[in-house]
Amino acid sequence: MFCSSCGTEVPETAGFCQKCGASAGKGGAAVPATGFSAPSADSDKLMVILAHLGGIFFGFIPSLIVFLIKKDSPGWVLDNAREALNWQITVLIAAVVSSILMFVLIGIFMFWALMLTNLVVCILATVKASNKQSYRYPFCLRLLK
Questions:
Q1: Which helix (H) or strand (E) element contains residue 3?
Q2: Helix, strand or coil for residue 43?
């Protein structure tokens, strides 16, 4: 499919355009392309699941590894790795802010709320990625595009 906003090729399973961020869902933001199919290998699925779940335990390292491995082959895996990496960078920035705010005592609550949010959202992303769909984290700084 091609994005109707910017004309970039978008994988059929993608929920958004990786270039401009427009929705590629059933709202008609993307038009079908010929001869392009999303990768169906189980190793790609495993890499995406590890990129999302690895963020719970190891921060941005797993998603960075998957992103660096797949950076030259655009598609479903790269979209998910990029999104997971952006989310983990956002969590890292928020954790630094909450640790600074611990001197005022509000940072303690902010830190635990952040860790709970990270756990829930990473699990949601993993479930969505296990169905070979792209997932966009809700409160994420999109530093890598």
A1: strand 2-3
A2: helix
In Å, what is the CA distance from 28 to each residue of 2, 10, 93? 11, 13, 35
Phi and psi of 27, rounded to 5°? -75, 0
Taking CA 101 as the corner, what is the angle to CA 96 and CA 106, rounded to the nearest 5 degrees? 125
pTM reported for the whole predicted model: 0.66
Mutual angle of helices 61-70 and 42-58, in 10-degree steps: 150
For helices 42-58 and 106-130, the axis angle rounded to 10 degrees is 170
Residues facing residue 2 across a β-bridge: 9, 31
Element (H, E) at 79: helix 76-100
| Span 56-97, pLDDT tens digits | 999 889 999 999 998 888 888 888 889 999 999 999 999 888
Residues 29-42 as b or e (16 or more Cβ within 10 Å = b): bbeeeeeeebeeee
| Residue 111 near residue 96 (C-beta atoms within 8 A) | no
